Amino acid sequence: MITMKVLGPFRAEVDGRPVDTRGRLGRMVLLQLLLARGAVVPTERIIERLWPTRVPPSAQTSLHAYVARLRRALEPERAPRTPARILVSAPYGYSPWTGRRWTPGCSRTGWRPARRRVHPRSWPPST
Predict the structure, then answer these.
(1) C-alpha–C-alpha distance, residues 8 and 72, integer Å
(2) Which of 7, 15, 93, 126 could join 42 in a cystine, given CB atoms 3.0 to 4.6 angstroms apart?
(3) Could you read off the pLDDT of 69-112 as tens digits, one per residue?
(4) What is the pTM of this model?
(5) CATH hierarchy code of domain 2-122
(6) Which of 101, 64, 104, 67 is nearest to 87 (CA)?
(7) Spatial contact of 12 and 5, defined as CB atoms under 8 Å apart
């Protein structure tokens, strides 16, 4: 099971094993795909969000490298040149975790619910 923790520092886990998301831009790529909730995210949109002011000439190549590193980190047991199961290439973009519906807080769809729920009136905690 893949768990993404976005409250506090961004962290990813695969079957309880922490995953190195490979730097700030790698985390940004993964977070964009996560926020898409299973939809294909066009490469142009990812590039615009990674480099909002000035897109470098090597942006497309850099994006492919970030995705390749994330795939190796998320699926270390996957053999080279075999299709990815987690970050999937799609026409004109990438899609996370195809074949599932991703809804926060619902373990049957791939998300692990929070262990402790915080009621809005109880935040911030009293000291």
Answers:
(1) 24
(2) 93
(3) 998 888 888 898 888 888 888 888 998 764 554 444 434 444 44
(4) 0.71
(5) 1.10.10.10
(6) 67
(7) yes
